[in-house]
Amino acid sequence: MIPLILNMHVRKEGRRGVTLFLPIFLAWILLLAILLVLFPFVLLAALLTWPNGKMLLALYPMMFSVLWAMSGLHIEVKKEKEDILFDFR
């Protein structure tokens, strides 16, 4: 499943943290619209460069597989006095 919400938590040492819930499903809608508009051009470029153009045709399935794999991704970045958490849900 494509992640719909990004939970971002920023905390500094000795201070209260800030948590943001970002609705990234809006970005997926915009990305899908852009991909649909660009698809005829990608198809034309793949046909014009056919032996190597197979990779252009594989671009769309590869991109969607990466998006599906992002669900449940949990990234923590720790510095000396700062912690940042990215959690894709």
Low-confidence stretches: none
Number of strands: 4
Question: How is the largest sheet built, in terms of strand order?
Answer: 2-1-4-3
Cα end-to-end separation: 9 Å
Order of helices and strands: EEHHHEE
Can you give a write-up of this model?
The relative contact order is 0.26. The protein has a 4-stranded antiparallel beta sheet with strand order 2-1-4-3. It has helices at residues 25-48, 50-57, 59-69; strands at 5-12, 18-23, 74-78, 82-88. Helix 1 packs antiparallel against helix 2 (50-57). The chain has one domain (5-88). With 89 residues, the protein is of the alpha+beta class. The chain is 48% helix and 29% strand.
Concise structural overview:
The protein is an alpha+beta fold and 89 residues long.
Features of this protein?
alpha+beta; elongated; four-stranded antiparallel beta sheet
Helix/strand layout:
Layout lengths: L4 E8 L5 E6 L1 H24 L1 H8 L1 H11 L4 E5 L3 E7 L1
Helix pairs in contact: 1-2
